[in-house]
Structures are given as C-alpha cells and as structure tokens.
Design a protein that fits this description.
It is a single chain. This protein is an alpha/beta fold. The chain folds into three domains: 149 residues, Rossmann fold (3-Layer(aba) Sandwich), CATH 3.40.50; 141 residues, no CATH class; 155 residues, von Willebrand factor, type A domain (Rossmann fold). The chain is built from 17 helices and 17 strands. The strands form five sheets. A six-stranded mixed beta sheet has the order 14-13-12-15-16-17, with helices on both faces. A five-stranded parallel beta sheet has the order 2-5-8-1-9. Helix 9 packs antiparallel against helix 10 and helix 13 crosses helix 14. The longest helix has 20 residues. The chain is elongated, with a radius of gyration of 31 Å. The two termini are 41 Å apart.
C-alpha cells in the first residue's frame, strides 16, 4: 500500500536492527538516515546554480541510491530529535516521496522511528503536519525470555511471511463506504486538531488520515487480517479515541457484497440504521462505476447515472455562496484608483497637489427572477439569499425584479422591503439591461434565478457577476461565477 509508518519505542529496544533485518530478509536495499544529525538541505535538496541561471535542488547520495535501485526501504531514524526546520523539510519526503528535485520510485517504502520526547536527549515533539502523514505504531520490545534465547542462538526474530496484496485489492469499496458513513454521521470526527503538544505529535483524525485508514483497512481485509490488526491501524491513523469508536462501528457493520446486490437486488435487506444504509448505497454506487470502467455492458445507463450523481461531492452551498459574494466584494473593494480631490488644509504642503489613492465602497445590485417557473419555494429561497447578501455587504443594495420585463427597481436595506412581482416569461437579459442603465454602475451583480432563461452573450463590463442557481433545472453562463442552491432546506 505504501503508507509511511512511524515506530514509537524506548531507546535501545532494537527498532533500527529489526528494520535492517527485515529489509535483508526481503532482499531490499535499506538506507538508514538519522534525521537528528541532518541538515534541512539533506531532504529539501541542496540549491545548485545551473548554467542557464536556474537553480537545481540536488538530492543526497542516499536518495540517489534508492532511485537507482528502483525499490527499497528509507528508514528515518531518531525523527523525534530532529529540529523543526528538518521536520519541515521532511514533509515532501514522507508524503510525496520527493527529495530535492528527485522523485523516489513507487517501490520505495518510508519507515521512521522515534523515541518519546521525554526519553530522547534534546527531543522535540513532532509537528502536527508531519505526524499526520504517518501510521503510528507502538514498538513492543522482546521480553527477557525471548531476548535471552535470541542472544544465545543469534537468531533474532524477524517479521517474515508478509502477505502479498492480491491484484485489484482496492476495488472493494465497502471500507471506503463505511468510513464515509461513519464520518457523515459524526462530522466532528472528520477533523479534530490536537490541543496539546504531546497529542499533536501522534495520530489524530483529519481528511488525510481517514483516507489513509480507508486504504490500510481495505488492504488488511484483502489479505484476511482480523479485527486485532484493524484496531491497530485505526488507532495508528486517527488516534486511539476516535479509532476505538470507529472500530466498534466496524464490528457492528456487516455490509453485503455490492456485486451480490447488483446480481440479485431482491436479496437486499434495508438496515435499521441510517449510517449503515448510506454505507451500502456508497458501496453499490462504487461497484457500479467500477463495473462501467471495466467495460461491462450489463450496467443500465440510468443506474450508472445514479451512481455518478450519488458519488458526486456535495458542497456546503451556504458557505460557497457566502464566499463567492464576499470574494467578489473584496475584489471590488480592493480596486484602488488615484484622486486629485482637494487635500486637507492641515496636510503637509509640498508646492503641488499630488494624487492620492482612494478605495471606494462597492455597490451591489441583485436581479431576482420572478417568472412563472419560480414557484413559492424558489421565491422563498430568493428572499433568504437577499437577506444573506445584505448581511455580507452590510449596506443597502439595489434589487431589480424581472420576468420578461422589469417589475421593480429599488434600493433596500432589509428583505422585507423587497416586493416580488411577475409570473410571466423569463429573460434575465432584461434585468441585465436595467442594471447596466444605472448610474453609477454597481461593482457587483448577483442573479437569483432558476437558470431557465437566456443570458447575455458576454460578461458585463465593469461588473463582477455571481449567479445563484435555485434548484436543479437551469444553467448559468460560462462567464459567471455560479453557485447552485436547493429550492428547499
């Protein structure tokens, strides 16, 4: 699977020796790099000027060795004693497998070892970004009896018989569906930033670590690993607290094989819990898309369309619309120009009137579609969005109500002042013309419409435009920033 792992254990317990023996047993080149005595350039690359004036980030010899072999183990030892500058340089190495300008081959695996900061000389806590890139595993030292037997015989235990992943091991989407269902039902578990320094250096839940856990458990199940292994993986990716809760969720979830459901949908028994029902739907939708990608001709077109729509990422339209309006307002408000207006009489005289910069307050106009295709739900949503625009702007706005003709044009301070009249055909070009005739022109133009209308051929000059599409029917012009919102909810 290639996920980077970090071994936590006390000093002198054989972590480095075990990794070396594991590499030798599997005939893998092994490069041991002690992070605490390295410079940031040993991971970020040494800047070397080139003849053409550009700069090359030259990789160190250990990275060249691994790249030349095409596979191997990169063992980052004593990572918890590496200073923050070195930890920052390690970010690309761990996640992107890139050292300077050299990309390590896919066959190179990254393993690190660390001693707890209180047991390491001059130790540092791992930075949260670096810690979040690892699968964290606790290293258990040999007990006295096993250690003594190994010392006498010279036969130290080495992990062997590591199972090989089957081909297409990640095709089964049930684990991804379960992870998605769990996080969807418990959204606060998606991202829990660590609050203490010690927690920041260990496993904690984030979108990255959840995705890592999904791949790891999928692989573990593909080779027949049981819940004990899955428990270790869960705690090592998202932390023991959230990982324990997720493992309990896994134990209660026995999803049917989506391929079986596609072959015999009548065998489906609807779960009593909504999160499990959602997980089943995700698994089936992924199986449908996978079957279509493999060229199977037995997938009905409407079923494929459902799967693609179901798996389409959902966005928070409230946040998206608010961000779009604020960003557009910010661009308008940030437009500065020179002015030669009369300076203040107390200003410093320099013998000439010099221009100064002015930043005007942005003006906003909202065009509301009041045509017959806009029902009560759509018009109610339009009123709500007018209220949202007013809160974002913090000042009066101009509202134009339009179907196939203009029915009203007035400046409002609250949505109660808006009168929505119309009910005829639809032509947002009429509303655009009405706004374009205003003097001065607004800086920002917002359309609230179902999109079932003709649009101007080109973007309005001098006005930044946001189209809020209410419902699922219509479309926005390509030149506008568009946000789709539901008619209800």
């Amino acid at each position: 699977m290639g996920e980077p792992a970090l071994l936590w254990g006390q000093p002198g317990t054989g972590k480095t020796s075990a990794i070396r023996q594991l590499a030798a047993a599997r005939n893998l080149p092994c490069e041991v790099v002690i992070a605490s005595i390295r410079d940031p350039t040993d991971f970020a690359g040494l800047p070397v000027p080139k003849a053409d004036g550009s700069v090359q980030l030259a990789p160190p010899s250990w990275a060249k060795n691994l790249a030349g072999a095409g596979r191997g183990l990169l063992f980052l030892d004593e990572i918890s004693t590496a200073p923050p500058a070195v930890q920052a340089a390690l970010l690309r190495v761990v996640l992107d497998r890139t050292v300077g300008d050299l990309a390590l081959p896919a066959g190179v695996r990254v393993v690190a070892a660390a001693n707890p900061p209180d047991q390491a000389s001059g130790g540092w806590d791992l930075s949260p970004p670096l810690a979040n890139r690892f699968l964290h595993l606790d290293w258990d030292a040999l007990d006295a009896e096993d250690w003594g037997a190994a010392l006498v015989s010279g036969d130290w235990p080495v992990p062997n018989g590591v199972p090989e992943l089957p081909e297409n091991w990640d095709a089964d989407g049930r684990v991804r569906a379960l992870v998605a269902a769990y996080v969807r039902a418990r959204p606060t578990c998606l991202l829990r930033l660590p609050t203490g320094e010690s927690e920041a250096g260990r496993a904690w839940p984030s979108p990255r670590s959840w995705a890592m856990l999904s791949r790891l458990i999928t692989g573990a199940r593909a080779v027949g690993a049981g819940f004990e292994v899955q428990a270790v993986l869960s705690a090592g990716c998202v932390g023991p607290g959230v990982g324990g809760e997720f493992l309990a969720f896994l134990r209660e979830s026995n999803l049917p094989d989506p391929e079986d459901l596609l072959r015999a949908p009548e065998t489906y028994k609807h779960p009593n819990r909504g999160d499990l029902a959602y997980a089943v739907l995700v698994a089936v939708a992924e199986a449908v898309k996978a079957a279509a990608a493999q060229g199977r001709g037995t997938i009905p077109e409407d079923l494929l369309r459902w799967a693609e729509d179901f798996l389409k990422p959902r966005v928070d339209w409230r946040r998206e619309l608010r961000s779009a309006v604020r960003a557009t307002l910010g661009q308008a408000a940030g437009a500065e120009d020179y002015t030669y207006r009369k300076p203040h009489r107390r200003s410093t005289a320099v013998g000439a009137v010099l221009p100064s910069l002015t930043r005007p307050v942005p003006r906003v106009a909202v065009v509301v579609d009041t045509s017959g295709s806009m029902g009560s739900d759509e018009l109610g949503r339009a009123r709500a969005e007018i209220d949202g625009v007013l809160r974002s702007v913090g000042m009066p706005i101009e509202v134009v109500t339009v179907d196939a003709e203009v029915h009203g044009k007035r400046t409002v301070r609250t949505r109660k002042q808006v009168e929505l009249r119309g009910g005829g055909g639809t032509d947002m070009r009429v509303g655009f013309d009405a706004v374009a005739a205003s003097r001065p022109l607004p800086d920002v133009l917002v359309f609230l419409t179902d999109g079932m209308t003709p649009w101007p051929d080109a973007a309005p000059r001098g006005m930044r435009t946001v189209v809020c599409l209410i419902g699922e029917a219509g479309d926005a012009p390509a030149w506008a920033h568009s946000v789709r919102v539901p008619a209800k909810g």
